[in-house]
Amino acid sequence: MPAPSAPAPLAIDAAAVSAWHRIAPSSPAWLHGEVARRMADRLAIVRKQPQQVLDWWSGQGASIELLRAQYPQASIVAVEPTAARAASLSQARRAPWWSLARWSGAAAAVVDEAGLDPARPADLLWANMMLHWAVDPVEQMQRWQRALGADGFLMFSCFGPDTLRELRALYAERGWGPPNTAFTDMHDLGDMLVHAGFADPVMDMEYLTLSWESPAAMLGELRTLGRNAHPARYPGLRTPAWKAELLRALQAGSEERPAMRFEIIYGHAFKAPPRAKVGEETRVSLADMRSMVRSGKARD
């Protein structure tokens, strides 16, 4: 019986994702750091002390110091989506010439996804707040599965579908198109993990509500989280008049401070052991079969 297919990925504009990789700020968003701290509280479930850790899309994940503190003896490799992002992060994290870390080789390695060494599989793969950028989540999970060693452990977080629900309602009411990419439900993510070769996936979620002193401050922080990669987004440039209308609508929709709710999904799973391949056909000689019958070993 064929294995069930994975849920279809939600539509996302690959060109917009690539553009975000080029323009994303060098410092991670505050929300990413907060989610990283919350996810680090869950590391107690990892009983095996990892020796090789992959910090996936490390520059925007705000997790490197947390991982270093948790696993001071581990080799931590920062993985970036592109060679350009890897080079930029490597330069940003390079210790000054007078630092002991620069000459002791203590700096973490930085590679792009294509530059991972398959001969050094990871014990722990950590991916904070990046899976919602994957054009094909199952393909991304399969890439994680290949990067992990036997019994390797995966921990990740991402946005869920209730994220920015208030902003979507405002845009829909005014016919402005979708303001952000549609995010995948945690149950579908769990099914995708199984399809990608992971075992015992555990999914969880929580809501975080952020408020700002003004709509302008809110928009400024939202820009640090990414850009609109929805294929049906407004195709042209917005005008200053439209932005003024957006700011008025955001202010009018809030009793005090403008606020937005974010659904944060957490997931973890083990790399499933490889399955033994069963041949389509098994041949037993007539002499062996007669021997099995005489010894009583041949049974229905």
UniProtKB/TrEMBL annotation:
The protein's superkingdom reads Bacteria
Q: Which Pfam families match?
A: Methyltransf_23
Q: What species does this protein belong to?
A: Caldimonas brevitalea
Can you tell me where the transmembrane regions are?
none
Q: Which GO terms describe its biological process?
A: methylation
**What one GO molecular function would you report for this record?**
methyltransferase activity
Lineage, opening ranks: Bacteria, Pseudomonadati, Pseudomonadota, Betaproteobacteria, Burkholderiales
The UniProt keyword set, sorted, is:
Methyltransferase, Transferase
What is the name of the protein in this document? Biotin synthase
